[in-house]
Amino acid sequence: MNTLALDTTDVPAAVAGARIRLSGMADDRAMLRAAADLTRDLQKPNPVIYWGDFLGSAAVGYAALAGAILLPATGWAIASGVLAVLALYRASLFIHEITHLKHSDLPGFRVGWNLLLGMPMMLPSFMYEGIHSLHHSRTRYGTAEDPEYLPLALMKPWTLPLFLLVSVLMPVGLLLRFGLLGPISMLSPRLRRLVVARYSGLQINPSFERRAPEGEFARQWRWQEAGATLVAVALIATVATGVLALKPFLVFMGVISAVAMLNQVRTLVAHLWENDGEPLTVTAQYLDSVNVPTGVLPWLWAPVGLRFHALHHLLPSLPYHSLAEAHRRLSAALGQGTTYHGANYPTLRGLMGRLAASTMGRRAA
Questions:
Q1: I need a surface site. Which of 81, 222, 233, 269 has the fewest CB within 10 A?
Q2: Fatty acid desaturase domain: from which residue to which, for each copy (predicted)?
């Protein structure tokens, strides 16, 4: 990291370079009431938008992946690889919507997503379902029981590059999880408990252990894991025997790695990561989260509504295609200088600068 100074032009003046006091913050009742009242008609997911967006993104992503594999090593192959990463990244982020959807509103979407993307990329939805809901728990957010939270802003500078490095190695981890550990664990109850608790969730909190699935979710888990295992074992076997050439395998793994890296960068700026482990009010959780509502680039690095991540924490059941309109309504109803505008930031660069500066301050301390 060479440039760690915080660019205050990219951060709201009220919070530039300073931590927000989250612990003990009271809820802004007016904001919460407005959020509920102004979005009642936006709650219904539109199947045409969901299916069209997902299928279109997946089709473009797989076509571009084929181009990256089949084209000679030229600029066109690189361009195809970049397009594959962006399109498959967008398609993969529907896993986030799956965790919040009432599946009766979009019948078949979870199955379709897993068959077309989750299992082929060794990223079945059970890896996120049952995990992400805890992150939205009123009493768990930002605590040691939150699987998706670490106080990164309060940690040492080396944690940030390590956080990104882990994502680069994600495809190797998935290959080992589904191609080796998963099948072997079926023969050992003790290993199975470890695999389920520690290696079956997209979590960033290393101390979190998930519970074994039950009921309908356990049935979903079984067929999704079987599909991902089939893909992983097939990849290992065909590469080892020479049936699958090394180039397509490495390109495929490289695309998954780049998708994971891009998502990890987004994760770094999804929150301010400034909570020290205390339970927070909804308002405090909102202000520890981030909206980047303007500009073109957020559509690429925070697609499927995730540029409105703070608003999502305020209204987690709102479909992704409704978030822009909800933001417009709340911005108009709640004027500048109110709590709602405190979670809006202009750029990725400014947020990364703020986080880096905070960790550097920890080193100085």
A1: 222
A2: 76-341
Q: Confidence class of residue 1 from pLDDT cuts 50, 70 and 90?
A: very low
User: On the CB side of 330, how many CA atoms lie within 13 Å of its CA?
Assistant: 33
Length of the chain equals 365
C-alpha 354/C-alpha 344 separation (Å) is 14
Closest CA relative to residue 118, chosen from 134, 103, 104, 98: 98
What totals of helices (H) and strands (E) does the chain contain, helices first?
17, 0
Element (H, E) at 244: none
* Angstrom distance (rounded) from CA 231 to CA 227: 6
- pLDDT at residue 336 in the model: 84
Residue type, 117: L
* Encoded tokens for 9: 């032009």
**Beta partners for 289?**
271
Distance of alpha carbon 29 from alpha carbon 150, whole angstroms: 27
Instruction: Report residue 26 as tokens.
Output: 């009271």
Amino acid identity of 7? D
CA atoms of 235 and 124, how far apart (whole Å): 16
The amino acid present at 305, given as its one-letter code, is G
What is the domain partition of the chain in residue ranges? 8-364
Q: Tell me how far apart the terminal alpha carbons of the chain are, to the nearest angstrom.
A: 19
**Does residue 10 register a pLDDT over 80?**
no
Nearest of 4, 14, 1, 10 to residue 350 by alpha carbon? 10
Contact status, residue 256 vs residue 121, Cβ threshold 8 Å: yes
Query: What's the whole-model pTM score?
Result: 0.92
Average pLDDT, the chain: 91
